[in-house]
Amino acid sequence: MRRGGRLGPALAVPxxxxxATGCGSAAPPELHGDPxxxxxxxxxxxxxxxxxxxxxAAAGAGWLDPASTSAxxxxxxxxxxxxxxxxxxxxxxxxxxxxxxxxxxxxxxxGGAAAAVSRLDSAVGARSGAVQATTSSPPGxxxxxxEGSLEGVQAVEIVLLWRVENVVNSLDAEGRAGGLAxxxxxxxAETQTANEQxx
Length: 199
Description:
Number of domains: 1
Order of helices and strands: EHEEHEEEEEH
Number of helices: 3
CATH architecture: 3-Layer(aba) Sandwich
Number of strands: 8
CATH topology: Protein Transport Mog1p, Chain A
CATH class: Alpha Beta
Largest sheet: 6 strands, antiparallel
Shape: globular
Strand order of the largest sheet: 1-2-3-8-7-6
């Protein structure tokens, strides 16, 4: 279950997808800002009916996988932050995310962040019932799919995990199966990447 069983207000389903990537072959300067400033903001979300469920705040090393806390700290975690958004729409007919938890974690260097991405990728991919596949966007990405149900309606949870130099990012979305898809989250990942790159 997501983040050690702490689920959003709408769903309680297993992990669905993981996407892990690095940056391009060039090595831009490492990032040194407050991770809170990198997080997606309410006005950057895909629809106007999101509200802030849990405001942006510091997060611990176990934000995505509590069992990896010590190892992620050893990878050089400096600080992390997360925010959770929620849409109060009918689940059975919803499209897109119902809950969306956004996180960014800054490490002392790109090598430590890469190690953390690999570690979290392995931890998520090893969860019971995970079905993995590759994805072409971004190149080399991986997807892990597990479906659940809520009041008889098929439900999914999708987690995207990627790296921008020394920052590890994650998006954790929950929604209706058939209404929420990995492709819907990729533009959000691109927006958060732009936040970090100042573009």
